[in-house]
Amino acid sequence: MAKMIYADNAATTRLLPEVLDAMMPYLTEEYGNASSLYGFGQTSRYAIADAREDIANCLGCLASEVYFTSGGSEADNWAIKMVAAELAKKGKKHLISTAFEHHAVLHTLKALEKQGFEVTLLPVYDNGVVRVEDVKNAIREDTALVSVMFANNEIGTVQPIAEIGAVCREAGVLFHTDAVQAVGHLPINFKEMNIDLLSLSAHKFHGPKGMGALLCRRGLRFGNLIDGGAQERNRRAGTENTAGIIGTATAMKLACAKLDTVTPLIQAKRDRLIAGLSQISHSRLNGDAEKRLPGNVNMSFEGVEGESLLLYLDAKGICASSGSACTSGSLDPSHVLLSIGLKHEVAHGSLRLTIDEDTTDDDIDTILKAVPEVVDRLRAMSPLWEDMMKREKEGN
Ligand SMILES: *Cc1c(COP(=O)(O)O)cnc(C)c1O
Question: Is the pLDDT of residue 208 over 50?
Fold first, then answer.
């Protein structure tokens, strides 16, 4: 069996050994409760305080603006539902977001619509980038919140977050960003970008699963997520996941420290993949070529069924995705690919490869050899493709 090539880092990433090492003491000897007064509990308390400080340094926020959660989905739910509840009291029941958000945001908005909120979903056009003008024009007297993701999890497009932040601040509207795909992969400054609320998830930057955080600007009034003890400044009760918190901070520190050096290397491999796969006939790159995450490749191949493509690649030891892991298993085409104007049948033949620092040049060569082989093979079996070719010939 050939070595496995993991090219699905947007779904989750490998826990780094350094991160596990940093977590280990808190899973074993250092089990004291951070809320206890004796010295043994204080060790955990101080470690958590340091972790908060490290995260604040990486993201340009205050330590007191960091609230730990169980992951990105929880942070998204918390930010949007609690702001909505708070501002509804002032009669503001209009929410603005985009058509291609993660389901943690979209389904939260759906739930709020059922409670009487009005939601405007902005278009993302064929390049997968939100227009700042559209945000500006959509803001109304009764707008409570704008929520735009930092970078898309399927097509990797990076949004003009600082510009949207400026527009929102000017209009006096709160701004949330789901930055789960961006933290640890792009430079972020919470304060300078005028962000009020930011969601992140540790397992997307080589930290542990089940850990995330919501950054919430100081002074912003919003409700508690879990009532109970005084943890997370009374806003999210429950004994802290000390090891998870230490793992999150360690992974983030490592990612931020090497961001400048590894980004160009990953980008170069990404662009080699895109150039190579674009040689396949009737293929297209989904999402803007420049405004995209350093490790994201998303291509569509006409006349190919995405799920089959994945199974054949899996047989060759390549882990890839057809869209987001959350929707795979359903036969509906990805809402993200539809939002950038792809036809259903084209969206179905899509492949997402998300590489990182671990991906070697040999891995890229292997992928560049495997994908065209599999595409050819699937097209040879496809009545749809045969039809397409026949029609093309007749057209000529
Ligand atoms: C993975 C992901 C989430 C969900 O994060 P979890 O920690 O898995 O709950 C939310 N938003 C985006 C953009 C993601 O990629």
Answer: yes
Residue 58 appears among annotated catalytic residues: no
Rg of the chain, C-alpha, whole Å: 22
pLDDT digits over 135-167, tens only?
999 999 999 999 999 999 999 999 999 999 999
Contacts of 195 (CB under 8 A, 6+ apart): 161, 165, 175, 176, 177, 215, 217
In degrees rounded to 5, what are phi and psi of residue 293? -60, 145
Structure-block tokens of residue 66: 């960091």
The minimum-distance atom of ligand 1 relative to the CA of 70 is: 7
Residue closest to 158 by CA, chosen among 179, 143, 172: 179
CA of 170 to the centre of ligand 1 (A): 29
Q: What is the pLDDT of residue 159?
A: 98
Identify the bridge partners of residue 143 per DSSP, sorted by sequence position: 94
Question: What are the b/e assignments for 144-164, b being 16+ CB within 10 Å?
Answer: bbbbbbbbbbbbbbbbbbebb
pTM for the whole structure: 0.96
Identify which of 178, 205, 326, 327 to mutate to test ligand 1's pocket (most ligand atoms within 8 A of the CB). 178
pLDDT value, residue 284: 96
The predicted model gives 166-193 an average pLDDT of 98
Mean pLDDT of the chain: 95
- As for ligand 1, residues whose beta carbon falls within 6 Å of it are 71-73, 76, 102, 104, 149, 153, 178, 180-181, 201, 204, 212
Q: Identify which of 8, 13, 73 to mutate to test ligand 1's pocket (most ligand atoms within 8 A of the CB).
A: 73
Alpha carbon distance, N-terminus to C-terminus of the chain: 45
Signed CA dihedral, 141, 147, 150, 155: sign only? negative
CA pair distance 243, 230, nearest whole angstrom? 19
Atom 10, ligand 1: residue with shortest CA distance: 72
Average pLDDT (189-208) is 98
Q: What is the pLDDT of residues 52-72, one digit of tens each?
A: 999 999 999 999 999 999 999
Residue 325 confidence (pLDDT) above 60: no
Question: Out of 168, 216, 319, 326, which one is annotated catalytic?
Answer: 326
